[in-house]
Amino acid sequence: MKVNDEHPRMTIKKVCSCFYSREFGLRSHVARNIQTLNGRIDDIVRKKNTFNFKLSEGGPKRRRTASAIDATEINGRDEDRGTIVKMLVSESSDQEPALRTISLVGMGGIGKTTLAQLVYNDHEVETHFGKRIWVCVSDPFDEIRIAKAILQGLKESAHDLNELQALLLRIQESIRGKRFLLVLDDVWNEDSTMWEQLKNSLKRGCLPGSRFLVTTRNKKVASIMGSSSTDILELGLLSPDECWSLFSQRAFFEEDSRERENLEETGRKIAERCKGLPLAAKTLGSLLRLETRRGEWESVLNSHAWEIGETESNFLAPLWLSYHDLPAELRSCFLNCADSNLLAPLWLRYHDLTAEMRLCFLYCAVFPKDYIFRRDTLIKLWMAQGFLRETKKQEMEATGGECFEAFVAHSFFQVLKKNKDDGSIIESQQHGE
């Protein structure tokens, strides 16, 4: 056996050298990774600047509502309207709470706000209440903003007040001896403590018979706001006839016209696809208002109409808000449901394009804003860049034509000029937003 006669200090030096070598190697590896990541980030920034991408805040935008409405343009909900008006103007009894809260509950797009607007502007309601106030609550539930909005509705100044206590005292003074109706539209808050201070202040001094009218998507919120089970009205879908009436009112300029006669059969089928949702009927009707060719209507009927840009922003936004309000674990469950395909266009309108189409679309970003594209010229430019492939079944020009038509269908392009003979697109413009 060979005896190791090295000095102990030499052994320690070798061990330290080994550890140093390994540590240096690890640091070098990390440094290379950081360098690679920095390079990728720089590349992303360069592409962002090249294609003029802009950063935007995530999440849905919540719309603001007001009380104004043209009742002549509303179809359906007559029975619901009568029910709510009766509940609002009925005489108070000893069994009723001091301030009765009536809630309209239903999914996004079902017509809660529209019904509340109809009731708010009803002549009987208008004459019954000394004061009517409309507040769009939305999310978050900002007590100070809501209190200021109530004061503005009472035609009282709130500019000099920033504390909740001072705002609530002025509200009490303004409603003393009056019977009022307060509409709280689009309520999401499930924390009862945030509502209690406002509610308790509104109770003081007002006349019996004052009412709250709440619109919400959540039955739990309705209960938190103080509605009993008998004071919660859950809105159902429109009947097929009501849906068609609403759709046709938006889609046709005149009740009796040649266009209506030619398109009514297709239009009724489109209205059926709205599944009784008022917002869907209004959105699709408005979308087709300027389209007089049956082929355009049939294209909407036979495709996923909600994938059209205008329909997305108007119809699917309420569904996206409901999804966004779910906890993370419930979102995952929701995305496994069959109805998740309704939300897909909100995120996938661009990603739904093929890789080939994405390249063609991104190439258009090098042109100035509001640039007018000639269809044939743009296809040739795509071909010159090598974005289009030729297959045994299809030439590059045909593939480019499909890309162009897809961009129009997805509302990436706005049609400016069509061929009068065959209806083919000659010129288009990229949307600015």
TrEMBL record:
Matching InterPro entries: Apaf_helical (IPR042197), NB-ARC (IPR002182), P-loop_NTPase (IPR027417), WH-like_DNA-bd_sf (IPR036388), WHD_DRP (IPR058922)
Residues annotated as domain Disease resistance protein winged helix: 366-424
Keywords assigned: Plant defense, Repeat
Lineage: superkingdom: Eukaryota
NB-ARC domain: residues covered: 85-255
GO molecular function, one term: ADP binding
This protein's record includes keyword Repeat: yes
GO biological process: defense response
Name this protein carries in UniProt: Uncharacterized protein
